[in-house]
Amino acid sequence: MNTKTNIIIQKITQEIEDGTWPGGSQLPSETELSNIFQVSRATIRQALQEMAFSGKVIRKRGIGTFVGNATIQYGINDLVSITNLISQSGYKVSVEHVSLKIEKPSAKVCELLNMSEFDPVYSVERIILADNIPVVFERIIYPAHILTGVKEEAFYGSNFKMLEQRGIYIQSSEGKISPVYASKHMASLLKLPTNAPLLFMDSVFKNQNQEAIYCVEEYFTEMFSFPIHRVRLN
Question: Each residue of 71-123: pLDDT tens digit?
């Protein structure tokens, strides 16, 4: 990294730390920054690229550059309520756009939940926000018989707590994580550019008797990171 670029990184970082550009806010354009710091756009671009690599800023194609927020750490082996995790990370958590409907289960759902194709399921979709920023989209599928009489209002908080109020305790989950790009529909829900990178988690949750209770598809924005801890076996 050349000295001029390093100086610009230090200056922008200082402005961020001073609160001139708080977390989540959009930085001035490259042209505006080059005028502010009296350097070329190439130097500004290089500085922003270096800062994006370290996570200090987030560059969104066609939109601009934003100050990075502290990520929400979701341990890869942790089983926690997403809403509680966001709150514990220091953010104000909220839930929006809850939809609840009864439908016929897909073949995949029948296999995951060990149920008949003739048994109805509740399909719940919701968006979870941190400090009013959409960070997770969830699609949750429950066998209808375990949530008799449930209303949409039940899904504006912790899913675990809602189930515990019905005497159902989640003990474990299993699934997989894969990188995906936001479809036009998903991008509109999460207020992201189309094809923005997301992490997709596909899981099934079980009770203390290892009975499958529900399955969920979750799309996480870059506000989440998934730290791992591995031990060498050989």
Answer: 788 888 889 999 999 998 888 899 999 999 999 999 999 999 999 999 999 99
Under the banding of pLDDT at 50, 70 and 90, the label for residue 55 is: low
Given a contact cutoff of 8 angstroms between Cβ atoms, the answer to whether 8 and 40 are in contact is: no
Contact assessment for residue 227 and residue 76, using Cβ atoms and an 8 Å cutoff: yes
Sign of CA dihedral 189, 194, 197, 200: positive
* pTM, 2 dp: 0.73
What SS3 state is found at 200?
A: strand
- Report phi then psi at 110, rounded to 5: -55, -40
Half-sphere exposure of residue 33: CA atoms within 13 angstroms, side-chain side? 24
> CA 101, 121, 103, 111 torsion: positive or negative?
positive
Beta bridge partners of 129: 94, 134
Reading the block at residue 199, the tokens are 């992490």
Which neighbouring-strand residues pair with 151? none
Query: How many other β-carbons are positioned within 10 Å of the β-carbon of residue 108?
Result: 11
The H or E element containing residue 199 is strand 197-207
Q: Which pLDDT belongs to residue 54?
A: 63
- Helix/strand/coil percentages in the chain, nearest 5: 30, 35, 35
What is the C-alpha end-to-end distance of the chain, expressed in Å? 39
C-alpha to C-alpha distance for 43 and 187, rounded to whole angstroms: 31
